[in-house]
Fold this protein.
Amino acid sequence: MKLLTLNFLTCARRTCKTSPSSFPLHPREAELEILESELNLVFLRNILPRLMWSELRGIGEELGLPSLPESPPSREDLVTKPSPAKPSSVTEPSSVEEEGGEGEEVPSQTAKDLHRLLLETTIKEGKLVCGNCGHEYAVKEGVANFLLPGHLV
Amino acid sequence: MASSSSERGSDYEATHVHAVYEDIASHFSSTRYKPWPIVDRFLKALPDGSIGADIGCGNGKYLAVNPHVFIVGSDRSSNLIKIARQHHPHAAIVADNLSLPHPQHSLDFAISIAVIHHLSTPGRRVEAVKCVLEVLRRPSSEEAQDGGKALIYVWALEQKESRRGWDEGHEQDVMVPWVMKGGGEKRKEKGQRKKGNEALTERQEPAEQPKDKTFLRYYHLYRKGELEHDIEEAGGTVVEAGYEKDNWWAVATLK
Ligand SMILES: [Zn+2]
């Protein structure tokens, strides 16, 4: 399960949802796996305002991942600054730089790190624990299971 | 014909819906690849970067429609979720429509495609719609139209042109067979069957021939106006509704 998913998950028990301590769920005994995928700059930029940054930082810490900066990156932080300021002249032969064609933006290291953390870092095995009720949801073969036992429904 | 309403509920659905999908997952999935036009249109019209849920996502066929949004697909069947999780950039989890693990009022959209009709009592259907609506963002003000939107799609009673031929006046609670042809690689061998699967019946084919297996799933067929009624009952507002090829659909927001 991609770590990004945790940004949109809480405890499945109705009584927990109104309690702030049920978000985010806490990974425990997690075995992580990197599943590489193509970086999509536009996608990253679009989801940026939806990230609960301090919660994600906390999750990263709990998983022992390199710590995230205190404040979230800005949209501009996701692209590399155009190296030497581009001349406005249109006659300049396009010196094909990187894989970027004309006008194509190049993801910055920040974007790459964010992509790695949110979309490529996955929980393969482990548990997700509710901070409110303590219920543990199992993650097996990369799939988190939120079905509740009958007495908790 | 389905049992009487008093016998239905969560145990009934466990046998006559959940267990069946778990067993037919891969075969079911191989037949489910073409998105319905209304759903396709709804998903493609979402602003880039929208965040949503596909509640009862099955094999995840709608996760493939728009890669510019992020969808958390959920389904009760872990066998279907194993298939659904291949769709990037989305996510897939095992969860129950009535106990969804999403923070309340956090998402831009939700879709519920061919799911609510599997809930076996009127109360549970309204509750299921309520759970779908509950994940949606509230509008920014009372007059604003900017709240999250849900697309709900259910099987219609009125479908006299279809292979099933149901129409107005027919019993609405029905058992619908799913036939898995014998001999195919999708076929499960006898003895691998999970216990407690009373929905399964077998038909004996001529000797030496592999047997077909027929699975029965419970459906509540929606009559005209009933989906809108359930949405209102669940605290939603219908903003658009219609009929598409044997199904009733509606787009709803929170009141
Ligand atoms: Zn909880």
Q: What stands out?
A: The mean pLDDT of chain B is 86.
